Amino acid sequence: MAASRTALALLLFAPLAFFAAFFLAPMAVVAISSVTTDGDTLTFAHYARILLDEYHWDVLWVTFRIALMTTLICMLVGFPLAWYLVRIVRWRTWRRICVILVIVPLFTSNIVRSFGWMVLLGRTGLVNQALMTLGLTERPIRFLGTETGILIGLVYILVPFVVLAVGNALATIDNSYEEASADLGVGPARTFWFVTLPLCLPGAVSGAIIVFALAVSAYVTPALLSGGQITVFSMLIFQQYSSVFDFHYGAALSITLLVLTLVLVGIAGRIGDAGRRAA
Amino acid sequence: MQPLLSLEAVSKHFAGHQALRDVELGVSAGEFVALLGPSGCGKTTLLRCIAGFLIPESGRIRIEGEDITAAPPYRRPLNTVFQSYALFPHMSVADNVAYGPRRAGASRREAQGRAREALALVGLGEMGARLPRALSGGQQQRVALARAIVNRPKLLLLDEPLSALDLKLRRRMQIELKHIQEKLGIAFIFVTHDQEEAMAMADRIVVMHAGRIEQVGAPADIYRAPATRFVAEFVGEPNLIPATPAGPGRARLAFAGLELAVPEGTSCAMVRPEDVVLVEGAAAPDLATATGVVEDVVAIGSVTTVFVRCGDLVLKVARLGMSGADLEPGATVAVGLRPAGLHFIAG
């Protein structure tokens, strides 16, 4: 009995300790340093500096706009892809190849993939050459240093998360729900809208939240594809830590981004719940 | 009169396995038909072909003369109660039932009104606001039924709807389903592998085996006069007595040396256990009797079955109640059967 109680305590303690050491402690360090000065006095001056400066609000707006657009486009691209993989592909080998194609990019470094897009999206890159050859544009389109370029890079990197989340949700929906809908005289399009979509909404919302969180905090892709023309919030944080060495101000920036992201994710979660109830 | 549903030479196969072979069947309006057979006999495949979830490779399916063989499920004038119920988990019970009329263009008020009516009919008038997962299995089953009859189809397909319920509830639902069917005048096609269920509810039973229809008939006819050995064994308990030809149109049974006039091709005679009696004292003159040894006695309360060995043959003798339950294995008894209770099976 005593032995099993010790074992139980250990079992509870191990994950708790892991969580504390690798999540809570660093967070606490950042949070504390965001409200102190080098002399260890309590101050909210860093937050005041951020929130009262219009420049930060501009950067925040750009950051969240890019993240929201990324999420939207990822959903629009990822949902049909997931549908294709789960519902249309019947040949197993081909489905497996598709899943591998979706997942393999996740094994490569963000930096490598973003550099790849720099090459592809450049003035004389493959994308512009193709567009000009097809006669879709006369002059090369500027992608690098624009939000479009960053969007392309982020969507490419993050779309697998949507495909996996939505695909998983779609695969677990029992076929008989859609059959029951058809049996009650409802055609495929409306069956999708009234039955399939509400049933995979939880999966879609979780996919969207993952994408949004990663897009809002993305550094490498925006940094490489912005060409110094566009600043997102993570770049400001990086500057403070790596160039200015103002850890307190950097910490305050981090916490600001974290809180705002959590608020938005919370709202999205509520919308997801409400959608499920209303449908 | 034109049948409500007619199946003409319907065939279907899956990856080298013939699921349905030339199935022919007519169902009249208001009729209760049970598709009965062991698992894998094709009864669910046939139901799914009628519902439109499967398209047969050959043959025709007509409803009131109109060919619907290839019509999609949402264009067929019939509804289905699914084995898993398939209630939409994200909708309340009332919304589940109102789904059909609502999507067909009824106003929200009207659809909800019809849903209430249908729910009241199945005895769930108060449950409309709940979610399906908050209901018991039996209640979910009733919601599935209400959802399927809310549009008042002429034909309702039921795919083993009671198989997930426990025995007591199942018996009650059998009676209730039959009452609802009679009240609404909807034709039911009811898939089941339970012969008692089929006999308790159906006007007509369709016995299926290996993708083919073995026999179609009223429950009493199927029970008394099974067309094949398979039907005899699947529906009720048969005593099968081998018959050997003994001259033209006659055969000798492997029981008491009985020699009878039989139809051409008879290979065995069947007699139900309740038509076999244990003879005490002087035998009645119309009985063919033989002596045998009791092998086993199984008493389940309402019926006691005595297994009696007569030579190579083991006969099941059914007696009402607990009479005969005190017989000891090894006891010698006289067994009698009425030649009138014999039914001859060919092949």
TrEMBL record, chain A:
Instruction: Report the Gene3D superfamilies cross-referenced here.
Output: MetI-like (1.10.3720.10)
Q: Which GO terms describe its biological process?
A: transmembrane transport
What SUPFAM superfamilies does this protein map onto? MetI-like
Q: Which residues cross the membrane?
A: 61-86, 93-111, 149-171, 191-216, 247-268
Q: How does it sit in the membrane?
A: Multi-pass membrane protein
**Keyword Transmembrane among record annotations:** yes
Q: Which UniProt keywords apply?
A: Cell membrane, Membrane, Transmembrane, Transmembrane helix, Transport
Tell me, in one coarse class, where this protein mainly resides: membrane
Q: Mind telling me which PROSITE patterns this protein's record contains? A: ABC_TM1
Pfam families from the xrefs?
BPD_transp_1
The residue ranges of the ABC transmembrane type-1 domain are 60-268
Q: Which GO terms describe its cellular component?
A: plasma membrane
* Localization of this protein: Cell membrane
Q: Which family does it belong to?
A: Belongs to the binding-protein-dependent transport system permease family. CysTW subfamily.
Protein name as catalogued: ABC transporter permease
TrEMBL record, chain B:
- Domain ABC transporter, by residue range, is 5-235
Keywords for this protein: ATP-binding, Nucleotide-binding, Transport
**UniProt cross-references to Gene3D superfamilies, sorted A to Z:** 2.40.50.100, P-loop containing nucleotide triphosphate hydrolases
Pfam families attached to this UniProt entry: ABC_tran, TOBE_2
Per the record, its GO cellular-component terms are: ATP-binding cassette (ABC) transporter complex
Q: What InterPro entries has UniProt attached to this entry?
A: AAA+_ATPase, ABC_SmlMolc_Importer, ABC_transporter-like_ATP-bd, ABC_transporter-like_CS, Mo/tungstate-bd_C_term_dom, P-loop_NTPase, Transp-assoc_OB_typ2
The processes (GO biological process) annotated in the record are: putrescine transport
Highest rank taxon of the organism: Bacteria
MF annotations from Gene Ontology: ATP binding; ATP hydrolysis activity; transmembrane transporter activity
Q: Which family does it belong to?
A: Belongs to the ABC transporter superfamily.
What protein does this entry describe?
ABC transporter ATP-binding protein
